[in-house]
Design a protein that fits this description.
This protein is mainly α and about 450 residues long. The protein has one domain: Up-down Bundle (Growth Hormone, Chain: A). The protein is about 75% helix and about 0% strand. Helix 2 packs antiparallel against helix 7 and helix 15 packs antiparallel against helix 16. The relative contact order is 0.15.
């Protein structure tokens, strides 16, 4: 355990010629982007292959995804507390190893299902397939979207204060490109070999490469390294010249129990959850949504490139703005663009509809990437950040579980996705108006 507890092993961040927080930015980006196989944009690429391999229809597979994701959401609050106790370095190694194992199971799901059905003959194959896929999805979501993303984002928030928005904005550039481009890249990997081989390749990268990377570079907070947020203290105890020398503001230390009793927490949390719900559903069914609009699979996945460009620009600008304005205005912008992007999907077969979808969802993703990194430390402090972020992440994971089956149910009952798109577009408008009542201090009543 000493290899996780000692921040000076195998090297001391304090001895770097520049503030180690910028290394943390790089480490956070890699940890977040490499969680892609456990994120919906990663799972969505394998959806059609899993339908063939398991014999489940799209609605049943979506439901298995929902069950697994809900199971993950129930565990995540405890994972957040584990992050507060053990630190980001320990958690990232645990998460990457877990995701690697999950990907191996995913790549062998057809063989496993065949073996299980040979030994368990008193349960029908569809039930066994559903149970197996729910378990696989639970593991992938828990270790990928859950622990990897949670530890990476939370760690970054702890290393910056006055420059937190800038750091989140810079990291958001690469995260947006990574997430938006990953479906196209994974689809390319599958076409080079097979979807099973791609799973095994990703398992090796996560379980060996990213695990070692995280152990080497991750550090939970600057204080354990003898540093301070935003900059380093030299041998004479004087702040580095690059650091703003304004008197430090006493840090907020709001517990997770106190946070969840505030209006601010729930408005922001529900807004982030809506984004997760809608984007998860869209990405999970993206191939079918494109086919419904008459678009080829390759053309649908190609939309992620311009979407990522829009998301990157928005994330960088919103990161800069977050250091200079109330965060509720960024949440309002997030909900407005999410409304536009979602509604535009009803006309994905037109140039205008496609452009508005890319702009709306891209900008919404940029605002989301900023808010998820700056909101909780801004309002509630760092001491209980893991627990608060874990609760928020659990809520988002739960919300993301609901999206795919709702869209799948709409398609199953009506033959189209229109009904689910209309409902999804209306929900952000509610948070749009609720955000107007958010106060600067989270413990101030909205009324």
């Amino acid at each position: 355990m000493n290899i996780f507890k000692n921040p000076d092993f195998p090297f001391s961040p304090r001895r770097f010629p520049f503030f180690y927080g910028w290394v943390i930015v790089v480490a956070s980006v890699v940890g977040t982007v490499m969680s892609t196989p456990g994120q919906t944009m990663g799972v969505g690429v394998f959806t059609d292959f899993l339908i063939t391999a398991t014999g489940l229809n799209r609605l049943t597979l979506s439901t298995a995804y929902m069950v697994g994701t809900i199971g993950s959401s129930l565990i995540l609050p405890f994972s957040g507390k584990l992050l507060d106790i053990k630190g980001a370095r320990f958690v990232i190694v645990l998460a990457t190893l877990g995701l690697g194992v999950s990907l191996v199971i995913l790549g062998t799901v057809e063989i496993l299902l065949w073996g299980i059905t040979c030994y368990i003959t008193f349960i029908s194959r569809p039930v066994l397939a559903f149970t197996l896929m729910a378990l696989v999805f639970l593991l992938m979501r828990q270790f990928g979207q859950g622990l990897m993303a949670l530890s990476s984002r939370t760690m970054l928030s702890k290393w910056f204060d006055r420059k937190r928005g800038l750091a989140v904005g810079i990291s958001g550039i690469f995260i947006s490109f990574g997430f938006s481009g990953s479906p196209l890249f994974l689809d390319w990997m599958i076409r080079q070999s097979s979807w099973q081989t791609t799973c095994f390749q990703l398992a090796v990268v996560s379980g060996v490469g990213v695990s070692l990377f995280g152990w080497l570079l991750f550090r939970d907070n600057p204080e354990e390294c003898g540093l301070v947020m935003d900059g380093v203290i030299n041998n004479e105890g004087i702040a580095d010249s690059a650091v703003d020398l304004a008197p430090p503001i006493p840090e907020i230390e709001i517990t997770v129990v106190e946070a969840r009793m505030t209006y601010t927490f729930w408005v922001f949390n529900i807004g982030l959850c809506l984004h997760a719900l809608i984007l998860t559903a869209v990405i999970f069914h993206i191939a079918a949504l494109g086919a419904e609009a008459g678009l080829e699979r390759s053309r649908v996945f190609a939309l992620f490139l311009p979407l990522s460009i829009v998301s990157v620009i928005t994330n960088l600008v919103s990161g800069w703005l977050s250091d200079r304005m109330q965060l509720k205005y960024l949440l309002i912008a997030n909900m407005a663009t999410l409304f536009i992007g979602t509604l535009a999907m009803l006309n994905l077969d037109t140039a205008a509809g496609m452009a508005l979808t890319v702009l709306g969802l891209g900008m919404s993703g940029g605002f989301f990437g900023c808010l998820i990194g700056v909101t909780w430390p801004r309002y509630f402090g760092r001491k209980h950040l893991g627990a608060i972020s874990g609760l928020s992440m659990a809520s988002m994971v739960f919300a993301s579980a609901i999206g795919p089956p709702l869209f799948g149910l709409s398609q199953s009952l009506t033959g189209k996705y229109d009904a689910s798109v209309w409902v999804s577009a209306a929900l952000p408008l509610v948070i749009f108006f609720c955000a107007l009542l958010v106060k600067k201090h989270p413990l101030v009543s909205a009324s």
